[in-house]
Design a protein that fits this description.
The protein is α+β, with helices and mostly antiparallel strands. Helix content is 16%, strand content 38%.
């Protein structure tokens, strides 16, 4: 009887301890350097799309006053998420970043099956939109996305 109760309590504790751990994504990517005098740092948006909803995960843009008018240039993100958010992006926004290697941690605790989208747009430059289907039930801890015009290699790691 005591063994059964102990085993049941241990199972319940294990279940709740795994539920409380936040699932995150580590995204490593490169913003390429362009040899131009009028180089502008790119805007970067990362979000998740599910069958029914979208979730903002990261937004790097000019944070000076009156510069939010350029957010519409992140076209796919703007159509899916930006225009509905009333410019309330606290907790996931930051200033634009220079060319180089970047790593971000993204909270995906409430997601299991989604498409991760990364959109990079540069003034007087190009636009890149990349997608990666992620299903946390598949036990695929790593994903790689090939580079495109405005973004270099992307490595995604699921942290459970």
């Amino acid at each position: 009887m005591n063994k059964t109760i102990s085993l049941t309590l241990a199972t319940i504790c294990l279940f709740f301890s795994t539920m409380s751990q936040a699932t995150t994504l580590t995204v490593d990517f490169t913003l390429p350097e362009f040899d131009k005098q009028d180089y502008r740092k790119p805007y970067v948006a990362i979000w998740a799309e599910t069958k029914d909803d979208t979730k903002n995960l990261l937004l790097w843009h000019l944070t000076k006053r009156d510069n939010d008018k350029w957010l519409v240039d992140i076209r796919r993100w703007w159509r899916k998420e930006g225009r509905y958010s009333n410019n309330k992006f606290d907790g996931m926004t930051g200033a634009t970043k220079s060319a180089g290697q970047h790593q971000v941690q993204l909270d995906i605790a409430d997601l299991t099956d989604f498409t991760l989208l990364i959109e990079v747009v540069r003034q007087k430059g190009g636009r890149s939109l990349v997608r990666q289907k992620i299903n946390l039930n598949d036990n695929s801890p790593h994903y790689n996305i090939a580079p495109s015009d405005e973004i270099g290699d992307i490595k995604i790691k699921v942290n459970k």
